[in-house]
Write a structure and sequence with these properties.
The complex is a heterodimer of chains A (about 425) and B (about 400). Chain A is built from 17 helices and no strands. In chain A, helix 1 packs antiparallel against helix 2 and helix 2 crosses helix 14. With about 425 residues, chain A is mostly helical. Chain B has about 400 residues and is mostly helical. Chain B is globular, with a radius of gyration of 20 Å. The chains are: A mainly alpha (about 425), B mainly alpha (about 400). At the A-B interface, helix 1, helix 2, helix 12 and helix 14 of A face helix 1, helix 5, helix 12, helix 13 and helix 17 of B.
Chain lengths: ~425, ~400
């Protein structure tokens, strides 16, 4: 009740401020600080409400983003949007910080010893999931093609190209959500481990899969194509270069922690942000760099625990802002336009993931609870999937835009449903609160 | 990329500066005075800023603006947390009277003189209310005393009881200036020649008070549920940032609203000590960061230099006269203008007031108020503690 009242007062004050606004901002960026303050407080409270309803905190943050972002424009007026798109763009810097921290955490959770023992199941689950998603989502898309919002009737080759790209965009899942829910539940166990390891591997594989799918789609649409050497070189550089830079960063950070260790949270935040920022310019993956750095420190330094504590120090406000912005970016228009299709695609993807994971777990003789619940860790989707959906538009123009709308709507659904399912799985598997 | 480097350097200097302030006892005397007074960070800011090496450009300063707003809210909240009745009531009424009397006297003297002198420096065609508002800011910044310089005197003198009272006065006497600043923001943005603007200004003042009160109560309601450092810290940061953001949105003073929120929380919550410790732990870094950015806004103007000298002298006169009024026949004091010599240190709060005003109502029509206040702060922080120490020693000998 107290939290509801607090949330109501924050919204009321925001509404009052919007009504009383007396003209231009004193300085550019002042709106950003207003939105940041609102997000920190209102989303945090929404997360607490979600937690009391046995939902993950991040579901609350995401819903806050949806509710006070695009939905408030539809429900109230354009003037009263607590999280307007312009301010969301201004807060994108938080994305880099958050992704850096998430990757450090994810890397810090991956233990080489565990990979040595269970590496085969990780590989099998990743491979089977990818194949199953491509087949299942691709087939469903082909079957439902008459319902796709194409500008005009399309030949079967174009529809097949669209189905292939849509299926490829459904491959990755959200490392951000997996890390955030695992941390929130203080989970430890095989489901949590497997979810993180497969997610990381799938994120890397997704880029390669999409590259191959894009080449095949180009061939289907224009009769030309094939994988270009330059593109392959680019992907190879992105992966190999990121692994190398990440290992170096991990080594240097490990030395810093051992020799100095001062102001570690600030140093980690700074390094995470710089890596994400600089990697984009060098065509490397900032996510992979930080992930490998975290992995190196966890596995080759005695100070892995210090890194985890440093990341935890600033992770909460960063997660609140990051997931709220993700919610505010949910394209409600797209979701409302194609939600029946999105639901079908999401169900097909879920079924493919469940089949792939269960097969891998059964073969590796994983315990019953892992076989039953591990697949729920792979439902959530976010950044990488959205990036691939955007690429789809670039590759196929107007036709691609229609399918991308379905992809974005499906990702929005998975973004909301995934964390809830994963939290439930961790609780059911008895892994919550074991750290 | 360059902005990234700028932010990294400023954060690094802020962290090193905060560490230096916390361990300043180990530093050589001269450097220690510069660090404790904050003058070193102002100089560094000037050096890095657009008038120095141009490492921090005006464009970057604008981009860092939101951080300044949060810092202002944080500083205000921290000041407000001190205003807990349980602590205030430990001191006799005479100390309260001295705090307010000398502060109000200094304020009145400077506002009167500035309002008469500044029109000679005003460029033609400037907006209405420019001189009046600048005069209020100069007076508000002059009215307070910086407690930081006085806190270090304890180890150099044995005048315990008097020093305790002077420190109390220094911790409290920014309040009249902050109130004036809060009022100024409320009236400045509705000022017009149409009748009724005064009433509108009072409405805004009421909104400021309610906003601060509401934020303080909100924090008091939420904080008991969040005892861990992460969630508790987020709630504190959220309330301060939200309050500062609302103020930036509707052109109110984040500093003033922060004070009201802090005072409300401090008096209505049983968790005041915990929150105070959390806010105080980060205060050093925020303060140094703030001084660096304030230094970057420095504008070299002969007129500002010209005005700074009489401003410093006038403030000293105000403090002496105010001390005479404030000690008039009140036990344990006797009419004692020399007590004003111990109230000369002027610190970060004065700069915060000037920057707060400058952010929202910057004008090129007058010499830079921030520059005048900055010069005065450096002079008063370097001379003030020394004068206070010599006065304390004279009293010890008696």
């Amino acid at each position: 009740m107290r939290i509801l009242l607090a949330l109501a007062s924050v919204v009321l004050v925001t509404y009052a401020a919007h009504s009383l606004h007396v003209g231009e901002f004193a300085r550019p960026g002042d709106e950003g600080i207003f939105v940041l303050g609102f997000v920190l407080l209102a989303s945090f409270l929404c997360g607490e409400l979600a937690s009391r309803a046995s939902l993950p905190l991040i579901s609350g943050y995401l819903l806050a983003g949806v509710l006070f972002g695009p939905l408030s424009a539809r429900l109230f007026s354009q003037q009263f949007v607590a999280i307007p798109p312009a301010a969301v763009a201004g807060l994108r810097v938080i994305d880099s910080v958050a992704l850096g921290l998430i990757a450090f955490t994810a890397g810090g959770e991956i233990k080489i010893e565990s990979l040595r023992k269970g590496g085969r199941v990780v590989l099998a689950a990743t491979g089977l999931q990818i194949v199953a998603i491509l087949l299942c989502v691709g087939a469903v898309t082909m079957l439902l093609s008459p319902l796709l919002p194409f500008p005009e009737s399309q030949p079967v080759e174009v529809v097949a190209a669209c189905a292939l790209l849509l299926a490829a965009a459904m491959v990755p899942n959200s490392a951000e959500a997996v890390v955030a829910v695992t941390n929130e539940c203080r989970a430890r166990g095989r489901v949590a481990e497997l979810s993180l390891e497969v997610t990381v591997l799938k994120d890397i594989a997704a880029v390669v899969v999409f590259l191959l799918a894009a080449s095949a789609a180009e061939f289907l649409v224009s009769g030309r194509g094939g994988v270009r050497l330059a593109t392959v070189g680019g992907v190879a550089w992105e992966i190999a270069g990121s692994l190398g830079v990440g290992a170096l960063l991990g080594f240097l950070l490990g030395v810093y922690i051992e020799k100095l260790g001062a102001e570690l949270p600030v140093v980690v935040v700074g390094l995470g942000f710089s890596s994400m920022y600089l990697a984009a310019g060098a065509r490397l993956s900032g996510l992979l760099i930080c992930l490998v750095a975290g992995m190196v420190i966890e596995n080759f330094s005695r100070k892995g625990e210090a890194l985890v504590r440093a990341v935890e120090a600033y992770s909460l406000p960063v997660y609140v802002v990051f997931f709220t912005i993700a919610g505010a970016r949910v394209d409600l228009g797209a979701l409302l336009q194609v939600w029946p299709l999105a639901v079908v695609v999401a169900v097909a993807r879920g079924a493919a993931i469940a089949w792939g994971t269960r097969r891998a777990c059964v073969k590796a003789k994983e315990p019953a609870e892992v076989r039953a619940y591990a697949w729920l860790g792979f439902l959530s989707q976010a950044g990488v999937g959205l990036g691939l959906a955007t690429l789809m538009m670039e590759l196929l123009g107007d036709v691609g835009r229609s399918v991308a709308t379905v992809a974005i709507a499906t990702i929005a659904l998975n973004l909301v449903v995934g964390p809830v399912a994963f939290r439930w799985a961790l609780v059911r598997a008895g892994e919550a609160n074991r750290q | 990329m360059r902005f990234l480097v700028v932010v990294a350097v400023i954060v690094l200097v802020a962290l090193l500066g905060a560490a230096a302030r916390q361990t300043s006892r180990d530093l050589p005397r001269g450097l220690r005075d510069l660090v404790d007074s904050g003058a070193l960070f102002l100089f560094l800011g000037i050096l890095l800023g657009p008038r120095g090496l141009r490492f921090v450009t005006p464009q970057y300063l604008d981009q860092l603006g939101p951080v300044v707003v949060i810092a202002l809210g944080w500083i205000g909240f921290f000041f407000g947390l001190n205003l807990r009745w349980r602590w205030l009531s430990r001191f006799p009424a005479s100390s309260h009277f001295l705090a307010f009397a000398q502060s109000c006297t200094t304020f009145a003297l400077i506002v009167a003189v500035s309002a008469s002198v500044l029109p000679y420096f005003e460029k033609p065609g400037s907006a209405p209310f420019t001189v009046e508002s600048a005069s209020v800011v100069l007076a508000a910044a002059a009215a307070g005393t910086a407690p930081s310089g006085l806190f270090l005197l304890g180890e150099r003198t044995s005048a315990g009881a008097l020093l305790r009272q002077i420190r109390f006065v220094a911790a409290l006497d920014d309040l009249p200036g902050l109130l004036a600043l809060g009022l100024l923001f409320c009236f400045a943005h509705v000022y017009s020649s149409t009748p009724g603007w005064v009433l509108l200004g009072w409405h805004w003042f009421l909104f400021s008070l309610l906003l601060g009160l509401g934020l303080g109560l909100l924090l008091a309601a939420l904080i008991p549920a969040y005892r861990d450092e992460q969630k508790g810290g987020l709630v504190i940061l959220g309330v301060i940032a939200f309050g500062a953001g609302v103020c930036a949105f509707v052109h109110l003073s984040p500093l003033f609203v922060g004070v009201i929120a802090g005072a409300t929380f401090g008096n209505f919550s049983a968790h005041g000590e915990r929150v105070f410790a959390h806010v105080a732990a980060r205060e050093h870094a925020i303060y140094v960061f703030f001084l660096l950015l304030a230094g970057c806004t420095w504008r070299y103007e002969p007129a500002a230099l010209l005005l700074a000298a009489p401003y410093i002298l006038l403030r000293a006169g105000g403090k002496l006269a105010g001390a005479a009024v404030g000690t008039m026949g009140l036990s344990p004091f006797r009419a004692d203008p020399r007590l004003g010599l111990m109230l000369l240190p002027q610190g970060g709060m004065a700069i915060a007031m000037a920057v707060d005003y400058h952010r929202t109502y910057a004008t090129a029509a007058l010499p830079s108020i921030v520059s005048i206040v900055m010069i005065a702060v450096v002079a008063n922080e370097l001379l003030g503690p020394a004068l206070a120490l010599s006065e304390l020693r004279i009293r010890e000998k008696r």
